[in-house]
């Protein structure tokens, strides 16, 4: 059996016998970590982080003092060693290692190496190198947030550098959470006076009249993801206090008409469900000292048949405009759960389209990717009722006139 000793300090391997292990052959690698306190954090409570690596790669990891012995196939051992080294470097910098970080390190280690720069010079750092050494942080009162992927890092930089940023991509890539985090950070630093979070309250037309309760009770269930992000970034009680003082506002898109949003950080979530007219109305609300982040997934448009997404039109018209940033996420940027990325890829294959995010562009209208999604039973029933009572408007319809 070939034995390889790997120092986490140097990252250099020195074979202890005459030759390297053959690819795919069972072998062992010893990883030496000099700081026992950091090694405890690396292993996690009850060695949960090591178990996560073992389960993902099919290796066995044994701890011997300050050394981790990794057993398994040679390729899997290499990936495990790279991931553990990257996580250890994060700990050396005072950054925590959580289960999501372990998953990120494993996925980034499997990602292809970046292509060399066409202009010469050093090759761009890999996803794993950026994850281990990058230090772009968003500080809030409750926690410090940092981007995990290269696209997330570009997105955060764009949010700080541009007045308006579009974040386009699949669910679970952190588009909305990072935008809210940047908004909270800017608000705490005094760079903006308030935060406004918005989304289409009901996917197909914002028709709230048939729901029970007052307007807040009708809208709040659709705004809950935004409340969740705020509560994750600010201490208990701070969110409600800021809302009461009008420092933070959460409102449906239909209520933006006629306003000028100056010195305000505005986030529009689920923007793919804004119509072209609504999107134009929203974008023109930007006032002096204001910032806007618009996020959405163009594969999950829930607008009625024949109604076009304003997000698609806006990104087409505004890409390249000075002061406007556009960042596209891919399935590889999913950080919610590793299964989510596989689900997205499976749906893409089933629908018989190229990976639109990985291609870096959306399909043109009328080519499958842009078509209205099938209507569910509730929508069909509502349409049938409307046909039976022509000309009757829904009671309390809150959609803009």
UniProtKB/TrEMBL annotation:
It comes from the Bacteria. InterPro entries: P-loop_NTPase (IPR027417), PhoH (IPR003714), PhoH2-like (IPR051451). The keyword Lipid metabolism does not apply. Belongs to the PhoH family. This is PhoH-like protein. Pfam families: PhoH. Residues 351-373, 384-401 have a biased composition (Basic and acidic residues). Residues 145-348 form the PhoH-like protein domain. The keyword ATP-binding applies. It is found in: Cytoplasm. Keywords: ATP-binding, Cytoplasm, Nucleotide-binding.
């Amino acid at each position: 059996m070939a034995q390889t000793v790997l120092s986490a300090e140097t990252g250099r391997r020195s074979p202890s016998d005459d030759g390297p292990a053959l690819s795919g052959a069972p072998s062992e690698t010893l990883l030496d970590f000099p700081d026992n306190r950091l090694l405890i954090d690396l292993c996690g409570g009850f060695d949960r982080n090591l178990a996560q690596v073992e389960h993902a790669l099919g290796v066995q990891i044994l701890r011997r003092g300050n050394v981790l012995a990794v057993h398994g196939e040679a390729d899997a051992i290499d990936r495990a060693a790279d991931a553990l080294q990257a996580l250890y470097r994060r700990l050396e910098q005072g950054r925590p290692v959580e289960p999501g970080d372990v998953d990120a390190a494993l996925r980034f280690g499997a990602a292809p190496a970046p292509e060399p720069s066409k202009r010469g010079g050093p090759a761009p750092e890999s996803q794993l190198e950026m994850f281990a050494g990058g230090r772009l942080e968003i500080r809030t009162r409750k926690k410090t947030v940092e981007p995990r992927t290269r696209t997330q890092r570009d997105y955060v930089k764009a949010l700080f550098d541009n007045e308006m940023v579009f974040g386009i991509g699949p669910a679970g890539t952190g588009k909305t959470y990072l935008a809210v985090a940047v908004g909270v950070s800017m608000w705490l630093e005094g760079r903006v006076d308030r935060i406004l979070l918005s989304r289409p309250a009901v996917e197909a037309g914002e028709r709230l009249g048939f729901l029970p309760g007052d307007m807040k009770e009708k809208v709040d269930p659709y705004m809950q993801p935004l409340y969740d992000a705020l509560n994750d970034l600010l201490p208990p009680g701070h969110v409600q206090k800021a809302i009461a003082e009008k420092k933070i506002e959460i409102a449906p898109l239909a209520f933006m008409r006629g306003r000028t949003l100056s010195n305000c950080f505005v986030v529009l979530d689920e923007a793919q469900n804004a119509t072209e007219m609504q999107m134009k109305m929203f974008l023109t609300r930007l006032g002096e000292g204001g910032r806007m982040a618009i996020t959405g997934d163009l594969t999950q448009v829930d607008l009625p048949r024949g109604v076009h997404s304003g997000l698609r039109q806006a990104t087409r018209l505004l890409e390249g405009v000075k002061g406007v940033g556009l960042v596209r996420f891919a399935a590889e940027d999913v950080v919610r759960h590793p299964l989510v990325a596989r689900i997205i890829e499976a749906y893409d294959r089933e629908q018989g389209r190229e990976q639109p995010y990985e291609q870096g562009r959306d399909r043109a209208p009328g080519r499958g990717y842009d078509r209205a999604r099938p209507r569910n039973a509730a929508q069909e029933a509502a349409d049938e009722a409307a046909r039976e009572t022509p000309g009757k408007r829904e009671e309390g319809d809150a959609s803009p006139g």
